[in-house]
Amino acid sequence: MRDLLLGLAFMLLGAVVITVASQYPTMASLQYGPSLFPSLIGGGFLIGGFVLSAIQLPALKSQLSSKDDSIRMFDFRPILLSLLPCALIIFYIFASEFLGAALCLGIIMLVLMLVKRTSLILALCVSVIASLVIYFIFSRYLLIPLPEGLLNFWG
After folding, report:
1. What is the 8-class DSSP label of residue 70?
2. Distances from the Cα of 88 to the Cα of 23, 24, 44, 105, angstroms
3. What is the pLDDT of residues 24-58, one digit of tens each?
């Protein structure tokens, strides 16, 4: 059931990406424009979501046709765990300007490690060290401007 819902979500996301990309301006001198690459990605999401959903249809059909009288509770935990990385990316998009990239990366890694039942001390140490290493590699060596957020107030 989880894969069916994720497949439908990917199909919906692909349709949204294609719709948004179709509104990009076209270039008169080229047969393709800035909408080509997002449209290809959206098409890949549509096809992948369709395949993922179609594979799950026989299993869903057998579950619905079974004559099992016991009421089975649906477990939402696997679906929520599958959607957690997407929710954390949305958290980064909205919070990184205020908190900063390093702090957001640390929070994201800490949450993901705690969900996988890593010890708190290990999760804290790894998330702090890894987020600082990633931040300094991107900002100092690759010269990618990352949001400083609260770090800007300290320095």
Report:
1. S
2. 28, 28, 23, 9
3. 877 777 677 777 888 888 899 899 889 988 888 88
Q: Is 5 exposed, middle or buried (0-12, 13-18, 19+ CB in 10 A)?
A: middle
Per-residue exposure over 82-103, b if at least 16 CB sit within 10 Å of its own CB, e if not: eeeeeebeeebeebbeebbbbb
Question: How confident is the model over 69-121, as pLDDT tens digits?
Answer: 544 566 677 777 877 888 898 898 899 889 988 999 999 999 999 999 999 99
Q: What is the Cα–Cα distance from 155 to 127, expressed in whole angstroms?
A: 22
Please tell me whether residues 8 and 52 are part of one structural domain: yes
pTM above 0.70, yes or no: no
Same-domain status, 7 and 58:
yes
Range of the domain at 57: 2-65
* Structural domains of the chain, count: 2
Contact between residue 150 and residue 100 where contact means Cβ atoms under 8 Å apart:
yes
Rounded Cα–Cα distance for residues 147 and 138 (Å): 11
